[in-house]
Amino acid sequence: MPRSVPVMPAELPVVPCVGAVVVDDMGRLLLIQRGHAPSAGLWSVPGGRVEPGESLTEAVVREVREETGLDVLPGAVVGRLSIPGEGVVYDVTDFVCTLLGPPAEPVAGDDAADVTFADGATLDRLPCTPRLLETLRAWGALPAGGS
Predict the structure, then answer these.
(1) Is there a domain that residue 146 lies in?
(2) Residue 23 half-sphere exposure, CB side, CA atoms within 13 Å?
(3) Is residue 15 classed exposed, middle or buried when 0-12, 13-18 and 19+ CB atoms within 10 A define those classes?
(4) Measured between alpha carbons, how far is 73 from 129 in angstroms, rounded to an integer?
(5) CA-based nearest residue to 118, from 61, 53, 68
(6) Is pLDDT of 117 > 90?
(7) Domain that holds residue 78
(8) Is 78 helix (H, G, I), strand (E, B) or coil?
(9) Residue 10 within any structural domain of the chain
């Protein structure tokens, strides 16, 4: 009789993604309210999937522009995390980004239902994506006065 060999589940596909940690001149963090799943209605940093042939820095510039109408210059990687999704794992690289051009108000676009610059007190009141504030806190990336 043949021996039974346990079947290991196939590894889930990894989807490269980016996020932007943008703080304005007043020390407020740029956040978008997600317009679609996952986490629709919750607040997070701008970001999304990396398109085929696109570098991580090109993707973060594009995502911020599409979701907020703002232009940024990506700087250092502030952190990286894996987020399980439905049948995939999102491999997210978050960059510290600097706003370019004259001060401008963000405008929600693309996948964003709303957009805002949030100070520390506002962050405490917003319903954010799971572990967002804890992760940013651990990375030292919350605005001054943040929780």
Answers:
(1) no
(2) 18
(3) middle
(4) 24
(5) 68
(6) yes
(7) 20-138
(8) strand
(9) no
**Nearest alpha-carbon partner for 94 in 25, 9, 19:** 19
Number of CB atoms found within 10 A of residue 91's CB: 15
Instruction: Write out the H or E segment, with its range, that includes residue 132.
Output: helix 132-138
Beta bridge partners of 121: none
- Domains of the chain: total: 1
The answer to whether position 2 is within a domain reads: no
- pLDDT exceeding 70 applies to what percent of the chain? 90
Please check the confidence at residue 85 and state whether its pLDDT lies above 80.
yes
Rounded-to-integer distance, Cα 76 and Cα 125, Å? 28
pLDDT value at 145 more than 60: no
Strand pairing class (72-84; 29-34): unpaired
Place of tokens 């929780």: 147
pLDDT tens per residue, range 47-75:
999 999 999 999 999 999 999 999 999 99
- Which amino acid makes up residue 95? F
73 DSSP β-pair partners: 98
How confident is the model at residue 10, as a pLDDT?
Answer: 61
